[in-house]
Each structure stands twice: as C-alpha cells, then as structure tokens.
Write a structure and sequence with these properties.
By secondary structure, this protein is mostly helical. The protein has ten helices and three strands. The protein folds into three domains: about 100 residues, Winged helix-like DNA-binding domain superfamily/Winged helix DNA-binding domain (Arc Repressor Mutant, subunit A, Orthogonal Bundle), CATH 1.10.10; about 45 residues; about 45 residues. Helix 6 runs antiparallel to helix 7.
C-alpha cells in the first residue's frame, strides 16, 4: 500500500487528505503530518493505515478542542465539559488537555483574570456576582481570591454608577424596586443604602 497523494483540504485549510493506492484513506493536520513524517510514495502496511485512521480521529478532536479554546478563554472545567458533550473517552481527553496545556490554553487563573476584565468592561458588576460566576465555571476559591485582589475596581464606584444609570429608568424611581434589583446583582444591603443616600 503506497501513499499516492497528499492534498490540502478546501474547507479545513490546516488539514490534509492522505490517499493510499489512489483512494482517500485518512486526514491529518499539518502538525501531525510533520510529526509522523508522512511523505508521498511512502509504503504503509494495513496495520499502519488502521493506526493512522485512529490518529486522524484524535487529531480532528484536538483541532476542534483548540478552536473551542481559542475562541475565548475557557476554564479547565469548561473544556472537560465540552469534551464530555463530544463523547470523547477519558484517554483522549487527557491527551487533548496535555496538548492544550503545552499551547498555554489551559490556565484557570488567566481565565479568571480575563473573565473579570471583560465583565468589568461590559457592565457594572459586583464582586459577589463575579465570585458566583467564577464558581459556576469551577474555578478554585484561591484563584478567584487572588485575581480579585489584583482587581483595583472600586465596588462603591461601581454601585454608584449602576444607581445613577438605573435611576434614569421609570421603574427604578421606586427605592424598593431599585434596592431589590441591586441586591439581585450581588451588592450588600448596607452598601446599597449608602449608595442611594449618596446619589439623592
């Protein structure tokens, strides 16, 4: 059995279709192609073709995982959750995680920092809400605490900004409704009272 063609795929530019005896046999990423030293005219046994087909499936899974991880930072738990939804077995999950770690794409502290920074940019959000959101992503308490210690945003200023913005809406002219809203956003009762007094 001879490799008779290696063709770049049209839809997946980073993948190559390998033809054995003029028939499509399997595909590999450019990295895998180089790592495996696959070349035109190479002779393969039936066992080797089977092995490359298994590698092809693992390689496709790794490509999907990398695309998922680079679209935005993900927590380690989010990555494993994605792998489970894809139905990948434990051994494959560990291989892919190891590859993502080598690429610097698995880092819960960096994930938490990016999460806090983006949430701060998008809207006025309380520290308590940020902690809740990061807990939902299964980030460890010590990492959350470390990241939030570095966050220089003033909780009081965030709250004042939110009160001023919400006061422009008719429904939040009522103090009780506004207090209830702010409490749902994770702000403490005493802080809310002080902010309302400070903006009257």
């Amino acid at each position: 059995m001879i490799i008779t063609a290696i063709k770049q795929q049209v839809r997946a530019k980073g993948r190559y279709s390998i033809y054995v005896d003029s028939q499509y046999a399997f595909s590999l990423s450019a990295d895998a192609l180089l790592t495996e030293h696959i070349v035109l005219g190479q002779e393969l046994s039936v066992t080797e073709v089977r092995s490359y087909k298994r590698l092809s499936e693992q390689d496709k899974a790794a490509d999907l995982a990398i695309s998922y991880a680079v679209s935005r930072r993900r927590s380690r738990w989010e990555l494993y959750d994605y792998f489970r939804r894809k139905g990948w077995d434990e051994a494959l999950q560990q291989k892919i995680i190891a590859r993502l770690e080598r690429l610097g794409l698995v880092d819960d502290e960096a994930f938490a920092e990016a999460w806090v920074r983006n949430r701060r940019l998008l809207k006025a959000v309380s520290r308590r809400r940020l902690v809740q959101e990061l807990h939902q992503k299964h980030v460890a308490d010590e990492l959350i605490e470390r990241v939030l210690r570095r966050d220089e945003t003033s909780e009081h200023d965030v709250l004042l900004e939110l009160v001023v913005r919400k006061r422009k809406q008719t429904r939040y002219q009522d103090d009780t409704k506004l207090m209830q809203y702010l409490a749902r956003q994770g702000f403490g009762y005493d802080d809310i009272k002080a902010a309302l007094v400070g903006t009257d």
